[in-house]
Amino acid sequence: MPGDPSNPEYPAFMGWPRRTLAAVGILICAGGLAAALGRFSHAPMPSEADLANPGRNAPEGAYDVLGRAAASPEPGAVRIDAALVRRGREAFYRETFGNEVFLTDVMGMLDGALSLYEVSRALTLLAGRGTANLEVRVARPVTVGDRTYRVGELIPTGLDVEKGSLFPLGIRTFYDRGHVRMGITCALCHSAVDPASGRVVEGAPNRDLNVGLMMALAANTTAYYMHGSTPSLDPFRTDPGRTVATRSGTRERLPDPEALEAAAKVQAASWPPGSFDSSPDLVTNPTSIPSSFTAHGHPYGWSGHAGIGPFRGLSALNNNVHALNSDTTAQADAAPFLFGLDPEVYLGTLLQRAPSPSFRFDPQGGRTPSQVLRAADPTPDAPGLNSYAVLPSAPNANSVTTNGLVATSPGEPVGYANDAMSAFQNALRAPPRPAAADTLARGRQVFERAGCAGCHDGPAYTNNRVVPAPEIGTEPSRARAFARTEATLRPPDLYAAGTPFPVPPGTATLPVPLAGEALAQMQLAWAHAGTPGGYKVPNLIGLAESAPYLHDGGVAVGPGPAHEPGIGPLLDPAVQADPAESLRALVDRDLRARVVAANRGSPRAVTARVTGEGHAYWADAEAGVSPPEQAALVQYLLSLDAPREAREDAARR
Q1: What's the DSSP call for residue 226?
Q2: Inside any domain, residue 234
Q3: Between the CA of residue 251 and those of 247, 328, 342, 344, what are the distances in Å?
Q4: Total tally of structural domains belonging to the chain
Q5: In this predicted model, what pLDDT tens digit does every residue of 287-310 receive, in sequence order?
Q6: Is 119 contained in some domain?
Q7: Would residue 479 count as lying in a domain?
């Protein structure tokens, strides 16, 4: 019958809900407007009424003064009000700071195995159903190591699409006079569709986001090579005719573009789903994507490197994503001390394979790489391609910005969107995970008896400390990610809140307080002053949303009756870690030993340095904890959905 959905000739859109049909109509109208005006962009933002976690925390104070809560304004104060939180939510879902240029024109995310057409096709075929793992067909064959992805093969991207939407969460699509670009926002990694309810969980890590593989399938993965284990370009400099003029007036060889690309793809593809390598330290060491349930959870970043400045370092973490990770061209001036490379060699390496002719560097073209970049740069007054306010310390790091840049949206004060996102993230609570009161009470008793509260104390179940890597016993390389910045580190400073952007010439900065114990903790977090580097004591809010565990995501146990240990099963984004079993592996030494052994047997996990080792604090039979008590402890940990005071207030009510 013509109206029967089982009929192969039945149009897919006839089964769509009205909301989706309305969205299609809006897109058609928007397309006509874009054709008329030449520009259009869109990023989805879910209705607050449709969230799985609409509850909110109250702010700590009326103002934030460079990381200190205050009741009245002072120099450097950010007012925390409803308008700031609203802007933070909007920025969380829609603000790219311009990274669509790097991701599309330089890295070529849509010019490799994944194409705009195939992404659009996959979204259309959802017919409004929504998904936690968008599958996209391969458009062009791409080889990664010994694996070739062939045309028509389905790639599990881990991209989340809300029910009734035509766009993935965390992706902003731009149409600009015939050119389509895609940029990323914070929601890409820090929001997720709950498969059970179909609702969006704001602040939850996207546990199956296959970002490493998507980068490996891009046209120019080399643009991110410094986040992989490529300690030197020398083995790739095999063509004596492929040279570039350095800033010192000499000529140096560039790496063979195809050979380096092949190596970069292998490194990026090793990242397990739900992880990301945010450190340009020439070492492959991705970390598990953290949640954004951040209230009272300072310092931020797995090593605790974001520990000072507005919102106790949370704004520094937000800034790091866009000032460092979403535009690697911004690091050119820092390349001599970060990578031992002349800036022109560094840029030439990144731009040799750029899919956009405007950004592609040709060694025979008569222009230096920086000249090529400057000619196409949408932000010529700042380093890199994104929208930045430049501190006097740039390109050197200071303890509130890893490269002296502050990602800023045009038309807003310097860093306003970063601070607004901090206020919004601190308001987020995890979805409630109820359990029997007697089970939770017994679990809390085990938590205290086993000594967990010694570190996981305070409002967010953390003592807000950085622990030396050897003491915690986990894989150490990520803890030393910022060690190379020590020789050029500058005293921490920022432009005052409200400073207009672009910054007027001669505008002074404010010093950010850093002394005493805070200085010692930052030195440990950055692996400076002879320290081995460290990892912060994470907060425990939202553990039900954030399996697998530890900084590398290595404490993983798969779902199902077999409960297969190790990261191996999770390398398929269709499989998610079981939170309860993974938490049990965190505290049970026998199960952990099986997890660690399984990780050692996975070549991909070994490449990515995912071990699951460390944090040898046990609540098992050998520690005098019975299986029922251990089960109660796990249920207690999974129930932690808000800061302690909020939970206690709710219990009293």
Answers
A1: G
A2: yes
A3: 9, 23, 10, 10
A4: 1
A5: 999 999 999 999 999 999 999 999
A6: yes
A7: no
